[in-house]
Specification:
- The structure is a homodimer of 336-residue chains.
- Chain A is 43% helix and 15% strand.
- With 336 residues, chain A is of the alpha/beta class.
- Chain A folds into three domains: 49 residues, lambda repressor-like DNA-binding domains (434 Repressor (Amino-terminal Domain)); 130 residues, Rossmann fold (3-Layer(aba) Sandwich); 128 residues, 3-Layer(aba) Sandwich (Rossmann fold).
- In chain A, the strands form two sheets. Chain A has a six-stranded parallel sheet with strand order 2-1-3-4-5-11, sandwiched between helices.
- Chain A binds a DNA duplex (30 and 30 nucleotides) through α2 and α4.
DNA sequence: GGTGGCAATTTGAACGATCAAATCGCCACG
DNA sequence: CGTGGCGATTTGATCGTTCAAATTGCCACC
């Protein structure tokens, strides 16, 4: 009776074919224990033969859930394909949890909040992943007020004591490890090149450098450089540090972009080897694109994605679990 | 009566508040001409006051459409953040057309087709964008047989006469322009470095080089190099070409990765200027990451995305419009 | 003043699934 | 032999929207 086209097999069609009621078919799929084994087998055969797949819109309507996670993406800037890689991990993690990732790109900045609200109110998504949390991000309290489920990738800098759920990677630890690595390779004067003060993650990475240097009683005077993310400006900043009387022999950097700049500033010696050893952050393609390849600190993006999805799905499913912060450790990828 | 929580304002709530029936509210939103101006105003006020937004699942169920476009993403390989950039353009274009982008990442290769089918059968998406069309891609006939709407970014290489709809960028034209540019700058011996024969787009780019060189009566013997996408192998291949008695003074390349390899192989002269001039393809961050920055051929990704979305939405909306191919032109971004 | 026509609005049904409650068949037990 | 209980299955209602058809109110026209 119902449609015969590819998309048109409904639960009633299956019920008719198997000689049972639609609820029994539903039970076979959602509560198999309630159904007698042979009935279940018969129903399953009918499902197979008709190629039945439950209609998602109907399920969503009934269950008041879309099983979609919203993610805002912005025009790509910078050299890292960070989002590219995180997106894959996130999509895979969401898929494993029975969710899909739904992307949106607000056209104007001031409509961004409205778009978030709309997606929730229309039931298009069940919650959000925020992968671009900024210092004192005003979205966080705004979401919290409205009971909009969300999880941050990145600590809620400047509002750490708020009721927010997040997953982050310990940047200070990563940089600390990088300094250890360089010291173990004989370096004593290790410089830091990264963002100017004000970005939470940048400040933290710089602290990791200070901590490790301090632990080894090494001097840090004049060994710090800051600039925006950009190869050219990073190279300039690194040159200034290298021009000093007692220049560094190595750099740890806040990003691979800064690191590439430092490498360019250092140049190569007669044997084609870099004059300064540089460790980047993010292990982006830039780290292997440059020759010889560069060491970099890799964030465990798969793990981050799994944890983010796990936290978000429990929050979405209504259990008002308390806010939770998860800190993961990055890993130094040593090259050459 | 109905829910009072954020997500719970229904069309009936609005109708009650405005003193009309639910269908009138629906008409105000979907067919304003049918409603008397003052009634419409009253309804709109009620919508505003209650913050009503139509439930997407209910609309989807009723309209038998999800207004979602499916896109498969795979684990990122290579140095380009191509997908990153295209994804943004695509999301923005979809949004402008009233659609969302829904991502999925099949875990195993052999389940990929099943995942596509599932997404369509469950009504989770209305159609697909294929951004990774390979030569003789078996997905294309498979989709066509099943009447699954899709549009390719990239010509259906090896099955150009099939009933497929696609948008592509004329790579031969781009490379041709690059050769013209180099010749105008005084180069006579322009080499080509790109993929081995067999990838449709790679073969085509090489043809563009041959065509332009031939038009100017320039020799191409020994000036062609092929290798997989990778900086190290590209550098080796370029070195072999440069080691010849009459080496090239410039390269046009199939990708920015090949181009970076060529630049590394060429090295810098005493003044820090590249010994060979290189033009890449894709204008990825790699082009500006390398110093001095590199010229590259930019694909009009925004335009591609708009056309892809336009074609897909018309196909989705049931108009069985004939298959259509759209060819766009890339643009040389000359640097230094 | 009855009727036809038309614009504005309402009612009933459907989309396809799931939950809750009702019903059925069967067996055991007093 | 009637009844209680239990597992298996079915029926009715609902989620929130839109389409199609029915209804209402109003004016013009004969």
């Amino acid at each position: 009776m119902s449609g015969r086209d590819a998309n048109g097999v409904t639960i009633s069609d299956v019920a008719a074919a198997a000689g049972v009621s639609r609820q029994t078919v539903s039970n076979v799929l959602n509560a198999p224990a309630r159904v007698a084994p042979q009935t279940a087998a018969r129903v399953r055969r009918a499902i197979e033969e008709l190629g039945y797949r439950p209609n998602r819109a109907a399920q969503n309507l009934r269950e008041r859930a879309s099983r979609c996670i919203g993610l805002k993406i912005a025009a790509p800037i910078g050299v890292s394909n960070f989002l590219d890689r995180f997106l894959y991990s996130l999509t895979a993690a969401a898929g494993a949890a029975g969710y899909h990732l739904l992307l949106f790109a607000p056209t104007a900045v001031d409509e961004e909040l409205a778009v978030y609200e709309d997606l929730i109110r229309t039931g298009t998504v069940d919650g959000f992943v925020l992968a671009d949390v900024s210092a004192r991000d005003r979205r966080l309290p705004w979401f919290a007020e409205r009971d909009i489920p969300f999880v941050c990738f990145g600590r809620p800098w400047g509002q750490e004591d708020g009721p927010y759920t997040w997953v982050d990677v310990d940047g200070a630890y990563g940089i600390d490890q990088a300094v250890e690595h360089l010291i173990a390779r004989g370096h004593q004067r290790v410089a830091y090149l990264g963002w100017p003060e004000g970005t939470g993650f940048g400040d933290e990475r710089r602290k990791g450098w200070l901590r490790a240097m301090g632990r080894h009683g090494l001097d840090t005077d004049g060994l710090i450089g800051v600039c925006a993310e950009g190869v050219a400006v990073a190279a300039e900043a690194a040159e200034r540090i290298l021009a000093q009387p007692a220049p560094p022999t190595a750099f740890v950097c806040g990003s691979d972009t800064h690191a590439v700049g430092a490498r360019l500033a250092g140049g190569l010696d007669a044997n084609g080897r870099p004059r300064v050893e540089v460790v980047g952050f993010d292990d982006s393609p830039a780290a292997t694109l440059i020759s010889p390849r560069m060491s970099s600190i890799r964030q465990p993006l798969d793990e981050v994605a799994r944890r983010v999805v796990g936290l978000l799905t429990t929050r979405v499913q209504g259990s008002d679990s308390p806010p939770e912060g998860v800190m993961l450790r990055p890993e130094l990828v040593a090259r050459e």
